[in-house]
Amino acid sequence: MEIFSYRINGPRRKISLKSLLKSALVQDWQTEVMRLSDIDTRTILEATLFGAGRSLSVEELSESMQISHGEVIANLESLQHTMKRRPGGALQLTSVSGRWVMEVKPKLANHIPSSFRTEIPQRLLAAAALIAYHQPMAQSQLVDMIGQRAYEHVRDLAHLGLIDRRRDGLSRRLTTTRRFAEMFGCPYAESKKVRKWFREHAAKMGMDGAELAASLGDGEEEIQDAPEVPVSEDWDESKAEIINDEEE
Question: Domain 114-247's class?
Fold first, then answer.
């Protein structure tokens, strides 16, 4: 083992290479911890929610940040208050059924230039409209309405961050995200409010969900009417597990 010697204001001392490296690693780790601790928890929460593009539960935030539920809630409420006081801020922090979401303020949503909104291929528009209209929509109902291509469309919409896939027993429930609402100029992020908003717009045009979807689609797929699949009595969107591609 290599031995190094040094002297700092006193007699020369000896230290092994192993001890020297260990000391350096500990110092690097301590420096990194200090850097992270210097970042305000509210700042990390704000960045996390903005980057997620969907609502997150207190449990998800607590687990990812390794802090207690109480700390998460206290910092979220503080951040919400801070954002309300920001002059000219474009975003707001909203709590929906126990989940928290970062969204564009309703008064600004319609002013976002279409060229800067998320692009969505026209082949996906029919499926997107049906999900918004019927959410929380059973994936099996979407298959009944547009056929086997529904699986591919759901996967692509999820990859774009426009919908979430949630468990309902052995079934799947499809709901829209904040990015979806922003893309369509909807002033709401909560799925129930997005559904109401879509239905009101369809009604103004004298259309039901299938007719609205057909008007937005590429004309290559036939859309059939299909009965809605009732949601399980104990199903709660805010607690339902979101399905990732690895679980499909």
Answer: mainly alpha
